[in-house]
């Protein structure tokens, strides 16, 4: 119920649509119900004798009434279903805006596929709740309310007879419909298992072939396949009853009218016209009765989906501007870690232990260490992709948690480990973080990132589409594009998280040289596995298991003969080998 | 890339000229179920006749009982009507069950045939075809075919018969009124066509716009951090609003067509009713008691027939779309079924059964794509029982050698012999049964630990599974799992460590007791204890059989009878560990680079001094 109350807010801007739409439903129903009345009178007149002119008038009235009712029918759908599309729009807009404010940790605990399912299937179920469910409920309500007195006036007993049997139609739709839906979903789950298994087989095709398991796999698949077909067939035995049963129940109504209504008419208690009228009322009742059962199912599905969507809305983004955040003077780029110990969860072991270091504005600092040593975690704390404990990470002497997020991030150029590009043109990807960047700026950034030569080879240069619908970039090209994307912002702080790993050493050398010029006066933080990348840094920190185990310049560290020196030696050998 | 794009388009565009061929081929799938299908079709005809009967009851009620004010016998008419209703109910239930049964059976056959074909298909096919696309064939395309049976396309035949039958009956009742009434049919027909055209176009638009929203969401949720880091929230929101709004507009446009269609159909119905009242009413009045040309009951029945006539006309174009979709889907399915298989068992196998384990590569050249040679002129021999290690840089062709040995691909030049017989002349199944592979990226199937060791081979007893696990010392961790050997393995072995997965795959290899072991050692670092376990497991599995190892571990290399050094697809050096080190060539350098991590630092120093 609470979910529904929250949802009701979304109707507020469309109150007028709702009211006018309701009126249209009412109008179309009441005017439409005039048709049986007129036809009934016409039939009575026919049996009594009628003039040509009167007949013509009847025919024209039927036409006119139908036309007016049709106009309201048209408006009703346009307004009410239209409203549900507007509400769907609003809800989707809010849903996306909410997701967009979520931090990294949220996306670690929620799979994208699951979020997508909520944004598509669940949203569509909620939309049906806001549109068709409301429209059909209103329609059913008005038809029954208005038709009842019309029928009662002809014959109370016949009306009661019909109203004791006809709800069976709604009940059939509701219960049988629900049963079918539930079973269908269960069978779909089973089918999902079969597909998962088949998919597994195709993915592991080499193992299957190597162990000559094809026959066994075919047999296993067919076993599931047969089971699936059988389950479907047992569902068919139920679902096949739905339509015939509805037809039978509706037919039963007509039969009752012939039997009891026919007797009434034969005895002269009602006229032939009224008999015909009753037949036509029943015709008008059929759809609302079916809709009633259908609406109940829509309601159940819609509220379940609403709950799933609200569950996401209930998660407040954990990394936001602190209430004390004020715009501080522009960022210069001095970074400090003070007694920083970081863990992902309260009870998890620390990923970083007691880190103390200062990076002066304008310095180039490098972090090396094995996978899992904590390098990436450390640098993710600076733009608050992860939230450090209060009082541990400072930029220009101000705790990062106390700065407005937008200001902090705007001063940082970040190049992630996994190059992530959007399905837009190359130029749009490079200018991603700069509003209104000129072509010259884009070209400049591409030049610094060593991308210019590649761009010349692309079919449409900078306007080439990247991604699924466009060209596929190589790993190195992607990395250089993400580098250009960071450089074009001319950030005070540039962070490279192992960002040149797919670029060959020669190109890397060229890029680093250009970068040094550009980044003079600015702070650069480089994480890398490669000695060649970090060699010229002002300071190199070697991390191991979350602690700094060595620090110094390249020469100092080589002289020490520790981890760093060993790494250097290995990489020299590698170069030598590649050359042979 | 150009060819890829072309293939992609071919995938989408389906020529209409094939329609008949496809229909004929589809009929072949129906043939086995003719005994079910023919009665179902007969029932369809009978049902339509029964439905046409129903308005007649109203007519007779009016003409025979109500107008002449006669009561007797009305009950029998009502009971007869009830009888017709019951019969309709039963027959139409049976008809639906029969039709859908045929549908399910045909789908079963198709899925089974597809899957069997895919199991026989070359490994190379899987290199070229994304798994997602294969899955679409097996799932949605087969489902689209099923729509033929469930959404009543078969009923279209019946519908056509029904339209003709109703029209004939109406003509027989009163041909002049019929002609007047049928004036509405062209109206309805053109309105329906107009609606379908727009609704379909609108639906396509809605679908593509929704796809765009989904693509955007998928991308921007995956890249949510990038959006935040680059202060792009506003812009992204604006972009999303635009897509969201496009989608909304497409929907509202579609609503317009629906909103106009349903009232319009009602209006045409009203026109029909008005015509019947007007012209029919006049005719009823004209008919003097002795020249009964049109009765009042017949007039009411006419109104009901008009309704019955409308339904199938409205449905036909809808069903036509389903038919189209089914044709496209079956075309895709048939193309997958027709895809030739290039690696097939020899027509006459020169050899089968268990091999002794002698392997010979004779001047083998191989490329995955035309002329990009991955192996150039590779020759070597492995005697039964020998162990050979292959070392080399990434991309040197190591894995290709094992792929060729098991005939995942066929060589372009030269030949590969097992026990002196070309692998292409071996019975394919027994060739592969002679090998057991342990791949770097251990692939576990969802199931239990036990089913992962045994795979599909029922002749591997439970004792043997346990024995194999014990031999490679996997038993200790397995028994600690909840459920032990019956412990559930989730998709791709989630929840098990890399080391544990490897131990399971060693147990699998041992349980299969192959003549030849192929081992692609993992490079990933694992803790020392597990490392030692794996070491022992490798030694155990290699015992008493020919083995070919893509080696990363120092001990495996040292214990190998021979080491082959591959470089850029060619054999550069061969010999024992000591011989090769002494030569101070490529191996020596490679060795220092790849096998000198911290735990082996000491060993390395010993070896070099």
From TrEMBL, chain A:
InterPro entries: AAA+_ATPase, ABC1_TM_dom, ABC1_TM_sf, ABC_transporter-like_ATP-bd, P-loop_NTPase, Type_1_exporter
ABC transporter domain location: 335-570
Coiled-coil regions listed in the entry: none
UniProt keyword list: ATP-binding, Cell membrane, Membrane, Nucleotide-binding, Transmembrane, Transmembrane helix, Transport
Membrane topology: Multi-pass membrane protein
SMART domains hit by this protein: AAA (SM00382)
Segments traversing the membrane: 20-43, 55-75, 133-152, 158-177, 245-266, 278-299
Cellular component annotations (GO), alphabetically ordered: plasma membrane
Domain ABC transmembrane type-1: 19-301
Class of this enzyme: translocase
Any GO MF annotation of the entry: ABC-type oligopeptide transporter activity
EC number of the protein: 7.6.2.2
Catalytic activity: ATP + H2O + xenobioticSide 1 = ADP + phosphate + xenobioticSide 2
Name of the protein in question: Multidrug resistance-like ATP-binding protein MdlA
Species this protein is from: Pyrinomonas methylaliphatogenes
From TrEMBL, chain B:
Chain segments annotated as transmembrane: 33-53, 73-94, 148-171, 177-195, 255-281
Subcellular location(s) per record: Cell membrane
Gene Ontology molecular function terms on file: ABC-type oligopeptide transporter activity; ATP binding; ATP hydrolysis activity
Keywords: ATP-binding, Cell membrane, Membrane, Nucleotide-binding, Transmembrane, Transmembrane helix, Transport
GO cellular component, one term: plasma membrane
Domain ABC transmembrane type-1 positions: 40-325
Pfam family, one: ABC_membrane
Domain ABC transporter: 359-593
Topology within the bilayer: Multi-pass membrane protein
PANTHER family in alphabetical order: ATP-BINDING CASSETTE SUB-FAMILY B MEMBER 10, MITOCHONDRIAL (PTHR43394:SF1), ATP-DEPENDENT PERMEASE MDL1, MITOCHONDRIAL (PTHR43394)
Protein name (Swiss-Prot/TrEMBL): ABC-type multidrug transport system, ATPase and permease component
Source organism per UniProt: Pyrinomonas methylaliphatogenes
């Amino acid at each position: 119920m609470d979910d529904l109350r929250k949802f009701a807010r979304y109707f507020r801007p469309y109150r007028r649509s709702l009211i006018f739409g309701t009126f249209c439903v009412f109008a179309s129903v009441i005017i439409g119900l005039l048709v049986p009345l007129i036809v009934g009178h016409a039939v009575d007149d026919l049996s009594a004798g009628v003039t040509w002119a009167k007949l013509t008038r009847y025919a024209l009235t039927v036409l006119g009434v139908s036309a007016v009712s049709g106009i309201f029918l048209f408006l009703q759908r346009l307004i009410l279903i239209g409203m549900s599309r507007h509400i769907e729009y609003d809800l989707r807009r809010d849903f996306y805006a909410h997701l967009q404010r979520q931090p990294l940790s949220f996306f670690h605990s929620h799979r994208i596929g699951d979020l997508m399912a909520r944004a598509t299937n669940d949203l569509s179920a909620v939309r049906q709740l806001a549109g068709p469910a409301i429209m059909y409920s209103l329609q059913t309500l008005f038809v029954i309310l208005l038709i009842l007195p019309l029928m009662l006036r002809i014959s109370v007993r016949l009306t009661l007879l019909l109203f004791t049997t006809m709800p069976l139609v709604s009940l059939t739709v509701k219960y049988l419909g629900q049963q079918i839906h539930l079973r269908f979903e269960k069978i779909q789950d089973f089918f999902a298992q079969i597909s998962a298994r088949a998919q597994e087989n195709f993915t592991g095709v080499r193992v299957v072939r190597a162990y000559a398991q094809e026959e066994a796999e075919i047999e296993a698949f067919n076993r599931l396949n047969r089971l699936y077909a059988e389950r479907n067939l047992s569902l068919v035995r139920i679902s096949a009853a739905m339509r015939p049963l509805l037809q039978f129940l509706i037919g039963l109504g007509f039969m009752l009218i012939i039997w009891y209504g026919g007797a009434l008419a034969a005895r002269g208690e009602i006229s032939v016209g009224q008999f015909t009228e009753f037949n036509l009322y029943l015709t008008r009742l059929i759809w609302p009765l079916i809709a009633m059962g259908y609406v109940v199912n829509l309601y159940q599905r819609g509220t379940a989906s609403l709950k799933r969507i609200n569950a996401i809305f209930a998660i407040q983004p954990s990394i936001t501007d602190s209430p004390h955040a004020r715009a501080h003077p522009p960022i210069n780029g001095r970074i400090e870690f003070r007694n920083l110990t970081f863990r992902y969860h309260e009870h998890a072991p620390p990923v970083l232990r007691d880190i103390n270091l200062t990076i002066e504005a304008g310095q180039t600092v490098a972090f090396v260490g094995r996978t899992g040593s904590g390098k990436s975690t450390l640098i993710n704390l600076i733009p608050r992709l992860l939230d450090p404990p209060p009082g541990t990470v400072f930029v220009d002497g101000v705790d990062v948690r106390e700065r407005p997020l937008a200001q902090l991030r705007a001063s940082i150029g970040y190049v992630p480990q996994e190059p992530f590009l959007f399905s837009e043109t190359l130029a749009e990807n490079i200018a991603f973080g700069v509003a209104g960047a000129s072509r010259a700026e884009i070209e400049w950034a591409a030049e610094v990132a060593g991308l210019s030569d590649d761009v010349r080879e692309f079919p449409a240069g900078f306007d080439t589409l990247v991604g699924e619908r466009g060209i596929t970039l190589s790993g190195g090209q992607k990395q250089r594009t993400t580098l250009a994307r960071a450089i074009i912002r001319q950030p005070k702080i540039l962070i490279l998280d192992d960002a040149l790993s797919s670029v060959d050493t020669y190109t890397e050398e060229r890029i680093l040289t250009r970068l040094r010029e550009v980044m003079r006066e600015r702070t650069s933080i480089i994480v890398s596995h490669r000695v060649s990348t970090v060699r010229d840094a002002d300071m190199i920190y070697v991390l191991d298991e979350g602690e700094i185990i060595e620090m110094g310049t390249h020469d100092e560290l080589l002289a020490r003969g520790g981890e760093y020196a060993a790494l250097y030696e290995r990489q020299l050998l590698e170069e030598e080998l590649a050359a042979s | 890339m150009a060819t890829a794009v072309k293939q992609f388009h071919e995938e989408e565009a389906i020529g209409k000229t094939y329609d008949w061929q496809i229909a004929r081929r589809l009929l072949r799938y129906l043939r086995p179920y003719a005994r079910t299908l023919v009665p179902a079709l007969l029932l369809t005809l009978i049902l339509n006749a029964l439905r046409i009967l129903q308005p007649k009851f109203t007519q007779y009620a009016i003409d025979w009982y109500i107008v002449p004010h006669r009561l007797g016998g009305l009950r029998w008419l009502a009971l007869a009507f009830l009888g017709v209703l019951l019969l309709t109910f039963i027959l139409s239930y049976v008809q639906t069950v029969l039709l859908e049964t045929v549908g399910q059976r045909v789908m079963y056959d198709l899925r089974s045939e597809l899957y069997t074909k895919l199991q026989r298909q070359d490994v190379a096919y899987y290199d070229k075809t994304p798994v997602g696309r294969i899955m679409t064939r097996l799932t949605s395309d087969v489902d689209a075919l099923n729509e033929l049976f469930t959404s009543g396309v078969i009923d279209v035949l019946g519908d056509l018969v029904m339209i003709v039958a109703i029209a004939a009956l109406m003509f027989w009742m009163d041909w002049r009124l019929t002609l007047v009434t049928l004036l509405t049919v062209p109206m309805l027909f053109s309105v329906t066509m107009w609606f379908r055209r727009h609704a379909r176009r609108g639906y396509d638009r809605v679908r593509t716009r929704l796809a765009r929203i989904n693509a955007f969401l998928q991308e921007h949720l995956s890249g949510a951090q990038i959006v935040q880091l680059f202060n792009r929230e506003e812009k992204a929101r604006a972009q999303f609003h635009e897509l969201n709004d496009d989608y909304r507009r497409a929907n509202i446009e579609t609503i317009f067509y629906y909103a106009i269609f349903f009232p319009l159909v009602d209006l045409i119905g009203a026109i029909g009713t008005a015509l019947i009242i007007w012209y029919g009413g006049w005719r009823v009045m004209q008919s003097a008691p002795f020249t009964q040309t049109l009765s009042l009951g017949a007039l009411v029945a006419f109104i009901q027939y008009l309704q019955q006539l409308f339904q199938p006309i409205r449905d036909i174009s809808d069903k036509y779309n389903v038919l189209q979709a089914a044709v496209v889907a079956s075309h895709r399915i048939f193309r997958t079924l027709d895809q030739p298989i290039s690696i097939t068992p020899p027509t006459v196998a020169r050899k089968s059964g268990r091999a002794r384990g002698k392997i010979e590569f004779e001047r083998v050249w191989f490329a995955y794509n035309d002329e990009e040679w991955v192996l150039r002129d590779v020759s070597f021999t492995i005697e039964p029982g020998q162990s050979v290690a292959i070392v080399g840089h990434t991309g040197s062709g190591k894995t290709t050698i094992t792929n060729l040995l098991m005939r995942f691909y066929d060589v372009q030049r030269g030949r590969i012999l097992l026990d002196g017989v070309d692998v292409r002349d071996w019975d394919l199944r027994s060739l592969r049964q002679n090998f057991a592979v342990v791949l770097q990226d251990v692939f576990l199937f969802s199931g239990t630990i036990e089913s992962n060791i045994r795979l599909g081979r029922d002749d591997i007893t439970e004792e043997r599974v346990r024995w194999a696990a014990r031999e490679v010392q996997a038993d200790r961790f397995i028994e600690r799992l909840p459920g032990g050997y019956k412990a559930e393995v989730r998709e791709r072995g989630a929840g098990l460590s890399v080391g544990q997965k490897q131990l399971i795959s060693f147990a699998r290899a041992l349980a299969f007791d192959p003549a030849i072991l192929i081992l692609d050692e993992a490079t990933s670092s694992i803790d020392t204890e597990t490392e030692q376990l794996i070491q022992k497991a490798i030694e155990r599995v290699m015992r008493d059989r020919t083995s070919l190892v893509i080696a990363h571990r120092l001990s495996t290399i040292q214990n190998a009878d021979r080491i082959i050094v591959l470089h850029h697809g060619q054999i550069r050096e061969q010999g024992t560990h000591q011989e090769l080190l002494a030569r101070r060539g490529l191996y020596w350098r490679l060795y220092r680079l790849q096998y000198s991590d911290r735990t082996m630092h000491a060993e390395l120093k010993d070896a070099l001094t």
